[in-house]
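This entry is retained here.
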Amino acid sequence: MIALAVTFAVTLAIMVGLWLLSLRLKDSSIVDLFWGLGFVVIAWLSMWLHAQSPRGWLVAGLVTLWGVRLSVYLTWRNHGRGEDPRYAAMRAKAGPAWPLRSLFVVFGFQGLLMWLISMPVQFAIRSLGELSWLDAVATVLVLVGVTFETVGDLQLARFKANPANKGQIITTGLWRYTRHPNYFGDAVTWWGLACFGIAAGAWPTVLSAGVMTFLLMRVSGVPMLESAMKHRPGYAEYIARTSPFFPWPPKG
């Protein structure tokens, strides 16, 4: 319990620091850039708080691979673009109340969510049990998930880099089989991490993967992005023939 309290306190302290930085930069969307790194911090802090084990090293390493890749990619993608339109809209709606409100509805909430979702990681790292076949399954799932979202991100970046594709919708590569390969890969990664939690005997931590998948499919992932994309020419046709989340051969 002491270790959980420490990771909780450190997570919230970091989010308050990010909030203060966001006030200086007038950019609340920096919270997204830290999302992946936040889990890396929690993982290695947990390693420091507990006796190291083979499972702990494996989980911390995989979380670092996922989290660093995500944060580096988002930082590169968003460089020079200013505040994300979603946060800019929230800022405009809240007016003068936004600086204080963002502490709770953006930074505080995401910090709490990050800490709760990281439970499979924290419990797997504190486990001293031997590695099992379930750890092997978990490792494969994490690597498949990270690879899937990395390939999807690279395909999208290459597509956008071509001036001829301006205003167009990517429908090739992984994007031919799912409208959101990056989100699907993210979900697979977290189901893999949940398997580590199960291998450590912490069955309830599987809820973390369920929460992450729900957020990606129903809240901050697919719905928000498609709400912004639905007015683009050809996107309705793309929706009609392409799976929204799970990879599947296109219709027609």
The chain has a mean pLDDT of 95. The first helix runs from residue 2 to 25. The chain has two domains: 1-128, 132-252. The CA atoms of residues 65 and 191 lie 16 Å apart.
